[in-house]
Design brief:
The structure is a single chain. The protein starts with a helix and ends with a helix. Helix content is 58%, strand content 4%. A three-stranded antiparallel beta sheet has the order 1-2-3, with no helix packed on it. It contains 13 helices and three strands, in the order αααααααβββαααααα. The radius of gyration is 23 Å and the shape is globular.
């Protein structure tokens, strides 16, 4: 089974161009599945839909979320489909296993006023309020970087991985457009506004200082956003930055990078943007993925109606 899984992961990497993060999820899900059947030494050809249901039952017993179980089942379906295509199996046993019914969850979205106040507050924040001395040049560089990060997350509505994957040539300051590599390495052009442009311009003016100060920096690094060591910023660091500034603004906020993407899409839709255009900007392959923001927008309108209408 292990050899088949490694071949499948190579196929995902080389043929489908999946991101390292997605590949890591596939590998972890398949490894858990293989470990479960390693205890009974069950070969790949003897695993049927009954055995897969038994494995899922074990996951339910461990109190895993239905969303996690559904993701693991999707990984198994893709793996067994690959095995059938390669001639290692005659049929896909996971195809007969029903996906858990998932609750319809709408993302919690910040209002446009909340986002504007948050970003404006960040722009006005002096270095001393983040726990570093104002005279520290590197700290000022990091503050400029952080402002550019947050402004661009909301202005372009990009995923965290897309933002961190940006290189210097991907940014057109004059045209206010970035070239984004999304899922499956599909490229798209995404515009951004004047405030993000100003923040990026301020950061790019000091990026070389940050790069020069980094002990692990490569002088030829093309990464747009770098850390204090001069290396490309990681997803973990981005999450920490967003959380830190959010709680400096409001201790009750628990913000994550994707929340700004949700806000971007919902605010565009609320202001009359075309759903197809939003789909293109977000890089969604399917319109149905974008349509969930319609529900969020309608829910918001109902709240406004209930508060404002005298006979609501």
């Amino acid at each position: 089974m292990q050899a088949a899984m490694e071949a499948f992961l190579r196929h995902l990497r080389d043929s489908r161009n999946l991101s390292p993060h997605t590949l890591r999820n596939y590998r972890n899900d398949l490894r858990q599945f293989a470990d479960y059947f390693a205890l009974t030494r069950t070969p790949l050809k003897e695993i049927g839909h009954a055995e897969i249901r038994e494995y899922l039952g074990e996951l339910y017993d461990r109190k895993l979320e239905k969303t996690s179980i559904a993701r693991k089942l999707a990984a198994l379906r893709a793996f067994f489909k690959f095995c059938v295509r390669e001639g290692w199996l005659e049929e896909n046993p996971a195809r007969l296993v029903r996906t858990p019914k998932l609750p319809q969850r709408l993302p919690s979205v910040l209002t446009a006023e909340q986002v504007n106040r948050f970003l404006d507050h960040l722009a006005e924040r002096p270095a001393r309020q983040t726990g570093v001395e104002k005279r520290d040049a590197r700290a000022r560089c990091l503050l400029r970087r952080d402002r550019a990060l947050l402004e661009l997350l909301y202005a372009a509505g990009v995923r965290a991985s897309e933002l961190l994957g940006l290189d210097l040539p991907d940014v057109d300051l004059q045209g206010q457009v970035i070239r984004v590599r999304g899922k499956g390495r599909r490229e798209r052009q995404v515009p951004f506004g004047s405030k993000a442009r100003a923040a990026l311009k301020g950061y790019l003016a000091v990026r070389e200082q940050l790069l020069a100060a980094g002990k692990q920096a490569s002088p030829t690094s093309q990464a747009l956003f770098i850390n204090a060591q001069g290396k490309r910023l990681s997803a973990c660091s981005l999450g920490h930055i967003v959380k830190e500034y959010a709680q400096l603004f409001d201790p009750n906020w628990h913000l994550h990078p994707h929340a700004l993407r949700h806000a971007f899409a919902t605010h565009l839709l609320s202001d009359g943007a075309d759903l197809r255009a939003i789909q293109e900007l977000l890089g969604h392959r399917s319109l149905s993925t974008t349509q969930r923001y319609t529900s969020v927008s309608i829910e918001h309108l109902m709240e406004v109606y209930d508060r404002a209408h005298p006979r609501a």
